[in-house]
Predict the structure.
Amino acid sequence: MIIFDIFIALLLAAGCVFLLGGALGILRMPDFYTRLHGASLLDTIALVCLLSASILYVLTRHPDVNGLITSLKIILIAVFVFITSPTATHAIADAGRRAGLKPWTRQNEEESP
Amino acid sequence: MIPVDIIVLTLIIICALGALAAKDLMVAAIVIGAYSFLICLLLAVMGAVDVAFTEATVGAGVSTVFFVATVFQTTRRTKD
Amino acid sequence: MKKLALILCLFAGGLLLMNAHYLPMWGDPASPASTHVSPYFIENAYEHTKTPNMVAVVLADYRSYDTMFEAAVVLAAGFACFFLLRSRARGKKGGHHYYRHIPTGVTIKIEEGGKLPAENSKVFRSIDALWTPYDPIIQTTCRCLIPFLQIYSLYVLAHGHYSPGGGFQAGVVLGATIILLAISHNLKTSLKRMSERTAALWSIIGVFIFAGTGLLCLLLGMDYLNYEVLAPLLLSDEAMARSHSILIVEVGVTMAVMAVMVWIYYNLSSAGQQDEGL
């Protein structure tokens, strides 16, 4: 049981680290597209870590049919986030491209510091 | 140990002030959406799950869409 | 004017903050609400209605006047948007139309006076003048998600007796699916699925179901919205009649809220012209 608890704690910590990385990426990246890329990818992987931690928690605390149903629901949440989150990122990036935002390069930076 | 609702309340006040201070109305609409989600979190912490569900769907979901649609049809700059 | 508003706002907020300590603490067992009203609901809700979710019982049975007038307020909001915004004028900017040739994805612009394709053409589809992305990814994802969202909203409605949920939430989620269709495709697609006339009719019918249930109780000789008297009509005893009536009433709320959300979105997103959305 203690092994599982340590594993859950590790997963939660990893999720928090990924979320922190996403937030830092939004703050530190140079332009719209790189910020979006950091935020979306790290959010998705952080969500996977957190949801698998909660699945493990439910299964170790309630090892019966109810726990199984709850973990199935959590897996469904993960599936829907995996479908919708990349689509939302794609839509935002597409809107940015249509609005005329130029991707960041070194030349751009030298031209307009 | 700071309780969760104190943190959430602080964030709610920051969001409300940010929505008031924003010059761009689209920004204000999005910040109001974040504000609604924080209210939803606060209600869920207090155990009112029904109200939290309503707040998440109505406040954060549909009213943000309405605000964005309205701002899109009018102007993005505030007068004051 | 802004200074005056700030002073008034600070004054009212200060008054509220000064008197906030008179309010009972959160979860205080000695507060008036938890000494008189709440124990009655907690003890009797299940016996009266055979419904485990007390919030649904309080909303749709004990305090059903509140919920009925909330639905009526939502309907009034829909009517207000309609009367303020809706205009018959087809104010096309520049008078030209955009069509998309579906097999190739090419966008064509037809100047004023040009020959337009047929309305139900399979090859050309009318698109918005501003821009509508030709985006199979977003359209396919939304197309796949919308049925799940609708089933989920029906689950929220039907399972409101046992878990958080109920009429308002289900109606908003159901309306959001139509709005999602309008955003991901365009306004005309969703108008084809649910026209403005349908939205208006559904919102009125929804409120009418709620008010009609109450009126039926009145006609059968009891108080307005006292569901017990409906037991012979619903072929059950009094407690189960209340439980069934809660479901009927929630269905009415769902229809009203869903239709009004879609209706308001149609009027807001197209500035009342309902030809082109966002």
